[in-house]
Design a protein that fits this description.
- The protein contains 11 helices and 15 strands.
- By secondary structure, the chain is an alpha/beta fold.
- The longest helix is centred in the first third of the chain and has 22 residues.
């Protein structure tokens, strides 16, 4: 049987690496696109080359979704069965500082891929998956969020991703392209970038415990997020493209926790006992109640800092994945506690 060919934009990211593994194990030939930089950013997929059964079907190409001629040439050369667009400037906070770059990558980048498919794939055999995000809901009152909820993004990232959502839907309806959106809520793993709140919190608290830094500084502790495991969420991405018709799906766990809940869980799992207090300005801080590792009693372990607050905040995200459960038979299995356990275990190994 002829092997399916997949093209992944953003293969070196968290989702890209898990998706590559999944597809390779399903006997796909996987082409991965990575940007040309002066540093080698393949850490998340390097282990694949140690597996003789997987490495022969993984081919990396240089590319960038901000360059249409490059995107066009890649799609035309490879002629994949499935295209996954996971390429993005995905940090919400950074998007306020790099708004134009975020738009070029996260919105117009999607358009470039769809245009390439429209021109090249005359028989409409290619399937396209667009990585959307819960940030497109912003602070919409329609909670928990499903496929029919209103969109009210409050950041350049969320706004750029909303354009991608609509242009994907538009090309599906206007040109009969098999183009689907996965509206993914927060999904984490040991491969998460260090500047994302889940891993930043775990790394920071471990560093304080090991004596490598005095205190962890954080922004809004009250923001609530629906956190799942990236490995399970990429399975949903694949399932979305195996469905007989293109469609849009919310992928979530249906449960949410605040950043403070995350911090408290990490502290508990590392046996660090703290008490929370509040400054007159309203900012909170956590003080150690006993000696633990390099932490001394009465030491400030966590501290809020206005530098880490965003110009505009999404307050409360929780997804309703009923449609995904019903239509593509997907549901999450790894809970929040298990996810944080795995991330802490791996981070402690990194320190050893």
């Amino acid at each position: 049987m002829k092997k399916k060919i997949a093209l992944i934009f953003g293969i070196t990211g968290q989702d890209g690496s898990y998706l590559a593994e999944l597809l390779l194990r399903k006997n796909y030939v996987v082409y991965g696109v990575k940007r040309r930089t002066s540093l080698i950013h393949t850490t998340r997929i390097d282990h694949i080359y140690k597996d003789p059964h997987l490495k022969t079907n993984l081919i990396l190409k240089y590319g960038d979704v901000t360059d249409f001629s490059n995107v066009f040439n890649l799609v035309n050369e490879i002629k994949p069965n499935e295209i996954y667009n996971l390429a993005a400037q995905s940090n919400v906070g950074v998007s306020f500082e790099l708004a134009e770059y975020t738009a070029q990558t996260d919105s117009i980048g999607t358009l470039r891929i769809l245009e390439a498919i429209r021109i090249i794939d005359k028989k409409r055999k290619m399937k396209f998956y667009q990585a959307s995000t819960s940030e497109i809901f912003g602070n919409s009152p329609d909670k928990p969020y499903n496929e029919k909820s209103r969109f009210e993004p409050v950041s350049p990232y969320g706004t750029a991703k909303l354009y991608s959502f609509w242009i994907t839907k538009n090309y599906r309806e206007a040109y009969s392209i098999f183009a689907s959106n996965g509206i993914l809520f927060n999904h984490e793993s040991p491969r998460r970038g260090e500047n994302f709140i889940s891993r930043k919190t775990i790394i920071g608290i471990i560093k304080v415990l090991k004596g490598h830094q005095k205190c962890l500084y954080l922004g809004n502790l009250n923001s609530k997020r629906d956190w799942g495991h990236a490995k399970e969420f990429v399975l949903a991405q694949w399932k979305i493209l195996q469905h007989k018709t293109p469609d849009d799906f919310v992928i979530a766990t249906g449960k949410n926790y605040s950043v403070k809940d995350l911090v408290n869980l990490v502290l508990k799992k590392l046996n660090i006992k703290c008490i929370w207090k509040r400054h007159q300005n309203g900012l909170e801080y956590a003080i150690s109640m006993s000696d633990q590792g390099h932490i001394k009693k009465s030491q400030i372990v966590i501290k809020q800092d206005m530098r880490y607050f965003r110009p505009n905040e999404v307050h409360d995200l929780k997804g309703d994945y009923s449609k995904a459960r019903r239509v593509i038979k997907w549901k999450p299995k790894i809970n929040f506690d298990q996810l944080i356990d795995e991330m802490i275990t791996q981070e402690m190994k990194n320190y050893k």
